[in-house]
Design brief:
Layout (H helix, E strand, L loop, with lengths): L1 E5 L4 H12 L3 E5 L11 E4 L11 H24 L6 E7 L10 E2 L9 H14 L7 E7 L1 E3 L4 H11 L4 E3 L8 E3 H13 L4 E5 L7 H11 L6 E3 L1 H8 L4 H4 L3 E2 L2 H5 L8 H6 L7 H5 L2
Parallel strand pairs: 1-2, 1-3, 3-4, 4-6, 5-12, 6-10, 7-9, 8-11
Helix pairs in contact: 1-5, 2-3
Length: about 280
């Protein structure tokens, strides 16, 4: 396929572009001012401002507008083309579910509350306009995409390498995640499989905040110091802390029904470049 890709220079975009090219597809990077080619068969939209940093009023506006207006412009360009693409895959986030302790969340679950929910709802509403144009539309609700080379994991590893090894939030709180390789494979799967609507981009392998912290502290050779409660993390990071500590047990029900098999386990996704560690060391208190 001839595939237009926004965010091709980003963390996931680079991995996805390489994977699609290796599979024989032609990938055309698209800038923030989209100018699609007339014969593009599919569009993948990963563009948007990074959520890293404190979410002050100006930053919140940047995060929201980059996703909403960027998606709106992209859908408008598809609408105006004589030959429209057959499929549109738009990134979204598991943040749409908010803080949901004790629940198991699938694509049929209701949205939650808070800024992340507001952003994802507005983002997906713009993406769904493509569906009214006869374009099969998928909104991929990613959890934390893990790879030591970037994203949230690289930031967590920096903390742990400095000896700041803490459990974030409650020890038993779920941590929704997906490995970078599986995230790229999942986008490709959505392009090639008749999925539509919201799709949870999370691994079915559930891990807790305590398991995350123990693995990373062991991998970096530091002792786990204790627990950093959510309120303390919010004092340090502001509302952005919710991206790390919102309690979400999310299942990828849609893709599992369609036969997608996740390849990466949590240990391999997090620790492979750090070098192997004995299982006893990783699981030790």
């Amino acid at each position: 396929m001839l595939i237009a890709l926004t965010g091709s220079g980003g963390f996931l975009g680079r991995a996805l572009a390489a994977r699609l090219a290796a599979a024989g597809h032609t990938v055309v990077p698209v800038s923030r001012e989209p100018g699609l080619l007339p014969r593009v068969e599919a569009v993948v939209h990963l563009g948007g401002e990074s959520i890293a940093g404190r979410w002050r009023a100006g930053r919140r506006r940047e995060i929201l507008l980059s996703r909403v207006e960027g998606t709106r412009r992209l859908v408008d360009r598809m609408r105006d083309q004589e030959n429209r693409p057959a499929v549109f895959v738009c990134a979204s986030g598991a943040g749409i579910y908010g803080d949901r302790p004790g629940e198991t969340l699938t694509e049929e679950s209701s949205p939650g509350r808070g800024f992340r929910t507001e952003v994802c709802l507005a983002w997906e509403a713009e993406a769904l306009r493509a569906q009214s144009l006869g374009i099969r539309t998928v909104m991929l609700r990613f959890g934390a995409i893990l790879d030591p080379g970037g994203g949230v994991l690289s930031r967590l590893l920096r903390w742990h390498r400095r000896g700041l090894s803490f459990v974030l939030g409650g020890p038993g709180d779920p941590f929704p995640w997906i490995g970078l390789e599986d995230a790229a494979r999942l986008v490709e799967f959505c392009l090639e499989t008749p999925l539509r609507g919201p799709v949870n981009g999370v691994s079915p392998e559930g891990v807790t905040q305590e398991e995350v912290a123990r693995l990373l502290s062991a991998a970096t050779g530091h002792r786990l110091l204790g627990r950093l409660p959510g309120w303390a993390l919010r004092l340090a990071l502001g509302e952005m802390a919710r991206a790390l500590v919102d309690r979400q047990r999310v299942l990828p029900a849609q893709v599992q029904r369609h036969g997608f098999v996740f390849h990466q386990d949590f240990l391999a996704s997090c620790l492979a470049p750090e070098g192997p560690r004995p299982a006893s060391q990783i699981s030790a208190p």
